[in-house]
């Protein structure tokens, strides 16, 4: 069983380390705050020297570089599972190469409690031979383990592109919950209906993606104009329930600009043209 070192024992890092240990991989860890786990060692240099594979799960690429600076990475494989942008991933790859380390970047697309589950998605980018070498180790973190390609920034690219859905969706749910609770009803009463709504949205994604890829928005299931008409309703509801709707103003601006570009009667996916510079 491959030895693994985990750098960072926050919620996600601890889940990664425990998944490695559960699968039988001898695991060493380092964390800036001591006492997080019995397999934690006091110095990052000691942690890195313990294993050929180093998995870093810190907040940013900058934090990862700062933490690993005292360690000798030559001959190691470094895998980063932090958040960041594509430019940061490219810089991280160059930084690792300058220190003699092979490098993969990755992303965990689920919560810490889901690490190790068969349907948990993780994706990686970097040299194919490194991914193939460590695939049996990485697969213990999630059964849906995907290789995106050799460019080191692809995992960060998809992390940002896919992750952009999360906060708007949650803010929409929070606003709905504020409305429901203002009427004395529990937020949990809307969960079943919200889940069905999200499933409907998910079912539409292949169609809108095909429209975006083709650039043809002329066969809509829902038009930009319908969303424009809904702006007044958004503002009315916010006023009735005493909500701060300022977070929606940017979305309203995108809708109006799409209309100004001539897409009122086109598919809702045409709003991407208002996002492109």
Topology:
Blueprint: E1 4-7, H1 11-22, E2 27-30, H2 44-49, E3 53-56, H3 61-68, E4 77-80, H4 86-98, E5 102-108, E6 121-125, H5 128-138, E7 144-149, H6 154-163, H7 166-182, H8 191-214, H9 224-241, H10 249-260, H11 272-275
Parallel strand pairs: 1-2, 1-3, 3-4, 4-5, 6-7
Antiparallel strand pairs: 5-6
Helix pairs in contact: 9-10
Query: What is the helical fraction, as a range of percent?
Result: 40-55%
Structural class: alpha/beta
Shape: elongated
Instruction: Work out the radius of gyration.
Output: 23 Å
Biggest sheet, strands in spatial order? 2-1-3-4-5-6-7
Number of strands: 7
Order of helices and strands: EHEHEHEHEEHEHHHHHH
Strand content: 5-15%
Major sheet characteristics: 7 strands, mixed
* First and last CA, distance: 50 Å
Counted by DSSP, the helix tally is 11
Jot down its keywords.
277 residues, alpha/beta, elongated
């Amino acid at each position: 069983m491959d030895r693994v070192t985990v750098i960072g024992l926050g919620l996600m890092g601890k889940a990664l380390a425990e998944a490695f240990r559960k699968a039988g991989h001898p695991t060493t860890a380092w964390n800036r705050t001591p006492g997080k786990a019995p397999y934690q060692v006091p110095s990052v240099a000691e942690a890195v020297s313990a294993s050929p594979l180093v998995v870093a799960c810190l907040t940013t690429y900058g934090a990862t570089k700062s933490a690993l600076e005292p360690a000798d990475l030559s001959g190691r494989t470094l895998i980063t599972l932090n958040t960041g942008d594509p430019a940061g991933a490219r810089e991280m790859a160059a930084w690792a190469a300058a220190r003699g380390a092979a490098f993969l970047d990755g992303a965990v697309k689920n919560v810490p409690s889901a690490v190790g589950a068969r349907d948990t998605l993780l994706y990686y980018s970097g040299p194919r031979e490194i991914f193939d070498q460590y695939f049996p180790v990485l697969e213990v973190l999630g059964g849906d383990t995907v290789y995106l390609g050799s460019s080191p920034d692809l995992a960060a690219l998809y992390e940002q592109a896919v992750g952009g859905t999360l906060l708007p969706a949650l803010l929409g749910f929070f606003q709905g919950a504020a409305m429901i609770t203002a009427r004395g009803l529990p937020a949990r009463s809307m969960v079943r209906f919200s889940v069905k709504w999200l499933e409907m949205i998910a079912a539409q994604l292949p169609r809108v993606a095909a429209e975006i890829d083709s650039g043809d928005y002329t066969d809509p299931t829902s038009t930009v104009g319908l969303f424009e008409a809904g702006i007044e309703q958004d503002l009315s509801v916010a006023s009735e329930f005493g909500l701060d709707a300022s977070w929606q103003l940017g979305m309203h601006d995108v809708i109006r600009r799409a209309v100004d570009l001539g897409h009122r009667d086109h598919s809702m996916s045409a709003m991407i043209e208002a996002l492109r510079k």
